[in-house]
Amino acid sequence: MGTGKGTALSAEDRERITQAVQEAEQHTSAEIVPMIVARSGLYRDAQHVAGLIAAFLTLAAMLTIEVSWVPWGWHASNAAWLVLAVTLAYVSGSVIGRAPAVVRLLTSHERMQQKVALRAERAFAQHAVSQTRERTGVLIMLSILEKQIYVLPDRSLVGLVSAERWQQVVQAAVARLHNGDIAEGLSRAIQACGLVLAEACPGRPGDNPNELPDEPIQEG
Length: 220
Known about the structure:
The structure is a single chain. The protein has nine helices and four strands, in the order H-E-H-H-H-H-H-E-E-H-H-H-E. By secondary structure, the protein is α/β, with parallel strands linked by helices. Helix 1 (11-25) packs parallel to helix 9 (182-200) and helix 2 (44-64) runs antiparallel to helix 4 (76-96). Mean pLDDT is 89; it is low at 1-6.
């Protein structure tokens, strides 16, 4: 799913997301926690692969035009220059391999999905989303580099809400996220999540405490 280019939100955007959480939680006893992360994995292997590709292309190019730069025969100094050029190409390729677009190109969709899922599970524990009295917390995490939004419900909700309904929550955000509107995309996902939770665990008048912060969490 498409996202914006960074995790920075304006005060207005943060307020819009916070209000969406507050409105959604009025009709359910569950708690919704929105989160935005810059990336869910380091993907160092993508940097390595990009470096190897650059080194290979440089070596192939230099050997192809060998006749123009060693017209009087091969010398030890030529080998030194060749090694230097290939090394510099690898270093340059590794730097380029850190770019989000390159990481996405060189990393499988399945691996990025796994990284996002692991990051969501870690965040679920770190931010105590499970610490609600009825275990009805829901984490909605947007990972920018991977261009994915992940919904992770607590265990009490697993049997109450089908996977298809959670997918509808994700789909509610996709169109806006493709246009780079993070705040609106997350707000729509929160609204859809609120509708799902209102059916699964409706709020109880006079007994619906706000157990978790409503403000979006932002991490690198």
